[in-house]
Amino acid sequence: MTLVSDAINLYLDYLRDRRKLSPHTLKAYETDLAHWCGFLREAQMETLAKLNSQYEPARLRHYLASRGDSLGRNSVCRHLSAIRGFLKHARQQGWLERDIGKLVPTPKGRRSLPQFLKIEEIQELIEAPDSTTWMGRRDRALFEILYGAGLRVSEGVGLDIEDIDLNQGWVRVLGKGNRERLVPLGTPAIQAVRDYLESRTPTADPRPLFLNFRGGRLTTRSVARILARHLVRLASSKSLSPHGLRHSFATHLLAAGADLRTIQELLGHSRLSTTQRYTHVDLGTLLDEYRVAHPLGKKTTNGHTG
Q1: Residue 51 in domain
Q2: Can you give the pTM of this predicted structure?
């Protein structure tokens, strides 16, 4: 093996088979490393020997700067993370004698805060689906689970019926890196899932919790479309990705005084620094909202929680 491209393919195999990265994350790494590999070929540095002897931190910084002309800071940081991971792995495998990735600092810049809905907006969203149809009940149960348990959308659509314990009020989640965690469910989420399961028709594959209209497992793209369809009915008409429901869960927990370590466990974050992003929201406003509503299962004066 002498080509960097061959080493990258072995690294991607390692990420898939040993690290158990999600297909989405793996595709992002593959795309970023393929672009960098093309850059190396143009510079006539496509072999591991040349990468080891001639590639300096300044060259990597130059590459990232060239990408920064067309990409945002987050994308550039993702590129750097992918390259750093490969270089570190190549050093550990003995393919390279040195790892220059750790010598290149992460580009500085302002990190955007997570988008989230206010508590009354969450309540309005959850109550938006038509509860007289099985798909409406599905949408409500979906929103209750994604928000009430703080799940990633990929975790939500990946749930099987056996992962939900409605009697005990727990959901078993398989998160990033194949890490499993148990997350509690509030009473409204439990009831919403029961209503949905009672109304859905038998399907060829009875395992998936959330089904599309054809009877197959719901996809992340479908969830984005479902959320967008119901958001336009809100009084505020906000734009939000499905991940925004997870952000709302974390933000509201923090505003209610939950410990960061607890939120980290519930979200399945491997690093506390990821959870700490939520300390930058306007807690004063959120705490005022908590005088009239609470998202974790206790009924409010409106008769519903998130």
Answers
A1: yes
A2: 0.61
